[in-house]
Amino acid sequence: MKQRMALVVALLVLGLSGFVGRASAQTPTGGKLRFVHALPGAPAVDVFVDNLLAARNLDYASATRYLNVKLGDHIIAVTPVGTGAQPSGTPLLNAKVTVSTDKLAQLVVIEGTPDKPEAGVFDQDLGPVAPGNTRLTAVHAIKDAPAVDILRADGSPLIQGLKYGEGYGAFDIPASSADIAVVPAGGTVSGAVLTASGVGLVAGTHNTIVALGTVEGKVKPSYLLLTTPTDSNAGGDGLLRFVNAVNDPKGIDVYADGKLLIPNLAFGKATEHIAFPITTGELTLMQAGDAPTAQPLGTQKLTIDGAKVKAQTVIIAKDASGAYTLQPFTDEISKSDPAKARLNIINALAGTANVTLNGKALTAETGKQAPLVELAPGAYPLEATVDTVKASIKGIVTVNGGTINDLVLVGDQSGSTLVVATTGISEQPGSVPVNSTVVSAKPTQPAGVAAAPTVAAPAATQPASAATEAPTLVPTQPKPTVAVGVTGTVNTNPNTNLKIRELPRVDARTLALMPSQTVVTVTGVRGPAAKPLTPIPTGTKVPAGTKTATPTLVANARTEVWVFISWQTPDGGTVTGWVISAYLDLLINGKPIAGTNVDAVLALKQVPEDTPGEVTNSSITPVAGESNRILGTVKTNAGTNAQLRRTPSIDGESLALVPAEGQVIVVSRTEVKLTGLVGEPKSPTWYFVEFDSAGSAVFGWMSADFLQLSRRNKPVDVKEVPVATEITRGYVQGNVTAVQPGAKPGIVASIINVNSGANLQLRRDPNVNAESLALIPPEAQLEVVGRDGSGTWIQVTYNGQTGWVNGAFVKITKNGKKVPISDIKITTNEKDTFGTQTATPTAPATATRSAG
Asked: Kindly report the CA angle at 55 between 51 and 61, in degrees rounded to 5?
């Protein structure tokens, strides 16, 4: 099946870089650092690590490869571009970065503004992935932008609420050709600010999307996609790089034993060296995007023996008959000198190539490679000619020490080019040529994609919760001093907007989105609908003392109370409408009311509930389409809550409790097989819904047994709810705390010492280099199976999978009481060495998104 994924990510452009991942299961003695220049409007910079040159003339929106460094603290200096091997001039930025056994790969993003640069340090998990999978994460480096979401084509989120200066927990997905776009947090695919199609996420790689640029400034938003190989699962794996030498506008998908390995590899493009986990495998070439059942372009067996030949470059070409072929060439990556670069010239053209490199003449027959060349770091002129295809290529090749550089001549009679594919082997600080520029990725706008606007307040459908993170991207208003009347200050989370609705209902049209801390005037509280007055006939006597009936307003919480407000917009206009009072800090005649004081709000002047809000003299455009949302009303006994679960099952983790008569937004549905268990819902239908809760939103699954569907107060048939194309796991957006389930029987491991939004690694074996089986969210509870001899690793079961977690990140209990590690049985056939040595775990850094 054609595997496509639509990511809607914040404001971005494509760049690639990589290195050969570690394969040893032994305790590592070193780690890796990588640098990205994300300072919009700033000139190129030099980067030094411990006073050694790590990057020379690094341009904005460019990245280095990973550099090998020792474990421990490293001093980073970012300076103006110089000419020597030592820092010169006043540093623009100094920072300390720690590389340790639990943080082996660190991404350093030079971000902020040119006058106030900052260093964002993000832990990167380069551990092995399952065959056919790729790992994805993101970093938000746009200083003046609000939070952003990364969505699939169907609108379901991959990453949500990503804020400036933050990274996101990495997760594994099948290799795919990605359609990339960007929306503000809380937005939808229809409101994408930027889109790009056909970006290949290759199996066996770690991909970090770095969003950079400005929203209000001159530097348009863009992105870098940093791709690097993940670690090998076994030391005998081979490392393969693929180059497409077929001059055809359509790309190629590469399958390995039925699994998509490389999607949409375009002519003249190369992959990284990725771990290939089989010794003899069948590779199938397909037209990019074709289903695996379609007619292949070609199929070929390829033998990989990592014990004999560690790395190869495989050229995808056509032979004289027009048949597709795969031809491997050896890449010598052993015993690499960090002060020398290796250059490997491969001729994929039809004819003998005469090459001059740095004044030295080399010859490569068609389908052959010239003798390996080693040069000091620097920039070298290259000329190549092939008379049979009238190819003539000239250029400058810049190389770093500790790298292997495959220079591949590709093309045909209609055109030819030189593909330069570089892999870092022993590249380290000091491997950079002192007097030449660094070869690095440049941002390019995807073809056919319009430039991102400087303001992103798209007229797109937003979630129907009272508060959403879809930004209006207008400056936060200052708080004026108001001595009389009733005012309210929006108290949503930072970068989270509050919806002003036309009428006091969650399914009413959204007129505007107000930023957090906006100050508004409160006109009154929701009252009964106005009724036309019936004139009293002339001469009718009205009894003395007749009283006008005043309805009594009743509510248990401010989340149930709507107020009518007026907002003076930044462009000089006015928006009036309805908001839930819980999202406002209220002042009455200058005095604040308690946050839970419902009676004080109900005592305000009543405004008829059929009074519509409106936008006057403002450029703000009401959000369209929300009135067509399907609502679900919870139908349970009074005082009984309905569970909102992470997955469509009664065993799914409970994320929230929705009270009787509470309302949710129904997004999609799915059918599950009934098993006849006690307590199981009668209906096989589950709905994926959104539940607004105190300024945040919870997304998850709810049984159809508990929901009554409606649209604009009219019943809705279940068939009108879209069928979910895939099962999206529920999640919490904002500051809501998921419902904590009671302790399971037996010994339980609860995750601790992991940052908010980070995940814990479930590994196949008890060591940090073992294959990652899953990423466990912080709220999960794990059934303990056993431990290793030292008590460092705990064997657990998660979602039916048994694996190992680092004991530094879990708390062991039974029936709520702490269990000593020594009481857990050893399941590794090791001697019990617990307590003979004490290891002090290092807590994850702020930007860490996965642990263990």
From this structure: 135
Q: H or E segment at 43?
A: none
Structure token digits, residue 290 = 């074709």
Separation CA 218–CA 27 (nearest Å): 47
Q: How far is CA 776 from CA 97, 396, 623, 780, in A?
A: 26, 47, 37, 7
H helix or E strand, kind and range, residue 599: helix 598-602
Distances (CA, A) of 501 to 255, 507, 576: 51, 9, 9
Q: Residue 244 CA to chain centroid, in angstroms?
A: 29
Query: Please, what's the b/e burial string for 669-702 (b: 16 or more CB within 10 A of its CB; e: otherwise)?
Result: bbebeeeeeeeebeeebbbbbbbbbbbbbbbbbb
Give the number of other CB atoms < 10 A from CB of residue 223. Answer: 28
DSSP line for 228-261: EEPPPSSTT-EEEEEEE----SS-EEEEETTEEE
Structure tokens given for 426: 């022993």
Query: What is the DSSP code (8-state) at residue 86?
Result: S
Which residues partner with 75 through β-bridges? 96
Q: Each residue of 172-210: pLDDT tens digit?
A: 888 888 777 777 887 887 777 666 667 789 999 999 988
Q: What is the per-residue pLDDT for 27?
A: 57
φ and ψ at 302, to 5 degrees?
-140, 125
Map tokens 């106030």 to a residue.
116
Please state, in angstroms and rounded to a whole number, the distance separating the CA atoms of residues 83 and 636.
Answer: 74
Global confidence as pTM: 0.53
Rama region for 594: left / alpha / beta (φ>0; ψ in -120 to 50; rest): beta
Residues 6+ apart with CB under 8 A from 447: none
CA dihedral (592, 593, 596, 601) in degrees, to 10, reads -130
3-state secondary structure of 808: helix
Torsion, Cα 840 841 842 846, to 10 degrees, reads -140
- Which range among 96-105, 491-500, 830-839 has the greatest average pLDDT? 96-105
Q: How far is CA 27 from CA 23, 101, 459, 723, 768, in A?
A: 11, 8, 53, 48, 8
Residues 6 or more apart whose Cβ sits within 8 Å of residue 841: 102, 753, 806, 808, 809
Supply the DSSP symbol for 751.
E
Report the C-alpha dihedral over residues 267, 272, 273, 278, rounded to 10 degrees.
-70
- Maximum mean pLDDT: which of 44-48, 607-611, 724-728: 44-48
C-alpha to C-alpha distance for 496 and 187, rounded to whole angstroms: 12
d(CA 300, CA 326): 7
406-430 core/surface letters (b: 16 or more CB in 10 A; e: else): bbbbbbbeeebbbbbbbbbbbbbbb
DSSP character at residue 678:
T
- With b meaning 16 or more CB within 10 Å and e meaning fewer, what string describes 86-117? ebeeebbbebebebbebbbbbbbbbbbeeeeb
Phi, psi angle pair for 822, to nearest 5°? -65, -20
Report whether 111 contacts 213 (CB < 8 A).
Answer: no
With 70 as the cut, is the pLDDT of residue 327 above it?
Answer: yes
Average pLDDT for 503-516: 80
The C-alpha atoms of residue 107 and residue 845 are separated, in whole angstroms, by 12
**Cα 523 from chain centre:** 41
Judge contact between 331 and 346, C-beta under 8 A. Answer: no
Phi, psi of 353 (to 5 degrees): -100, 125
Q: What is the pLDDT of residues 157-167, one digit of tens each?
A: 777 788 888 88
Q: 229 exposed, middle or buried (CB, 10 Å; 0-12, 13-18, 19+)?
A: buried
Nearest-CA neighbor of 300 among 242, 239, 257, 260? Answer: 257
Percentage helix, strand, coil, to 5, in the chain?
Answer: 5, 45, 50
Nearest to 431 by CA among 68, 76, 22, 17: 68
Task: Please provide residue 706's backbone torsions phi and psi, each rounded to the nearest 5 degrees.
Answer: -110, 5
